[in-house]
Amino acid sequence: MMVPIPYYIILSAILFTLGAVGFLVRRNAILIFMSVELMLNAANLAFIAFARYFNRLEGQVLVFFVLTVAAAEVAIGLALIVVIFRTKHSIDVDQVSTLSG
Amino acid sequence: MDLPTVLFFLHALIAVGSAVAMLTSRNAVHAALWLVVNFVTIALFFLTLAAPFIAMVQITVYAGAIMVLFLFVIMLLGAERLGGEERFAFQRPLALLLAGALLVEIVYLLLSPSARALAAMPALTQEGTPQAVGQLLFSRYLFPFELTSVLLLVAMIGVLVLTKD
């Protein structure tokens, strides 16, 4: 009656791969960040699926921590993007090839 | 196929479709909204996997707070249009090739004998209600929980320092 766990894991793998493709292909810093969020979410899905399979809540607690880390990471990352945009007037990552402003 | 499996495939189709739409959209705001769709479908998967607390946190924190931050920065910078001139022509096919290899590796791993034993779903004994997850967070995982508050404080101070002129 229940959907078996490998279905969820394969879906998580597909979403993670799509996030990796986005990270490698897109040149816009904001889109790259969104791809990272997609990958984090795919990992969270795998965590929750295994937590359900083993009937343990530790997986859900770990997802809670991943959410917090993602929130901190997005805040710092977007601040960096704003700073880069101020000096380069672009958020294309190919433009950020030199260290001196 | 029974109803849960049909619903699973329907949701999985929406999740993968919204992810692909996010990756291919030419407008950053559209990409952000597709990502919100993806987050909501993932929250629905969490609900079906007996994790109602995490599902609601997912919607409030991810689809709410984080995506508002994304949209705010996109609008602040006026960076909706995504210009896409490629500097290295070999990058895109190489990225797709590597991603295909990654997917094949993961699926191959899942088809190994030890993973095939996962097929049957055991009966649910522990549901991730707010009470159950909260009790675990404030007893065995109290120290990591306190550390995350320090992490958020550091992130907050870091953002203030970075964007201060």
By CATH, the topology of one domain in chain B is Four Helix Bundle (Hemerythrin (Met), subunit A)
The amount of beta strand of chain A, in percent, is under 5%
Nearest-angstrom radius of gyration of chain A? Answer: 17 Å
For the secondary structure, the number of strands of chain A is 0
Instruction: Give me the CATH superfamily of one domain in chain B.
Output: NADH-ubiquinone/plastoquinone oxidoreductase chain 6, subunit NuoJ
Strand content of chain B: under 5%
Structural class of chain A: mainly alpha
Determine the fraction of residues in helical runs of chain B and give it as a percent range. Answer: over 70%
Report the sheet with the most strands of chain B, covering strand number, pairing sense and barrel closure: none
Give the termini separation of chain B: 60 Å
- Rounded mean pLDDT of chain A is 87
What structural class should be given to the helix and strand makeup of chain B? mainly alpha
What oligomeric state do these chains adopt? heterodimer
CATH topology of chain A: Helix Hairpins
Description:
The complex is a heterodimer of chains A (101) and B (165). Chain A is built from three helices and no strands. With 101 residues, chain A is mainly α. The longest helix of chain A is centred in the C-terminal third of the chain and has 31 residues, at 58-88. The model of chain A has no long low-confidence stretch (mean pLDDT 87). Among the domains of chain B are: 1-82, Four Helix Bundle (Hemerythrin (Met), subunit A), CATH 1.20.120; 133-165. With 165 residues, chain B is mostly helical. In chain B, α1 (3-24) packs antiparallel against α2 (28-48) and α2 (28-48) runs antiparallel to α3 (52-77). Chain B is built from seven helices and no strands. Chain B has helices spanning 3-24, 28-48, 52-77, 91-110, 113-116, 130-138, 142-163. Helix content of chain B is 75%, strand content 0%. At the A-B interface, α1, α2 and α3 of A face α1, α2, α3, α4 and α6 of B.
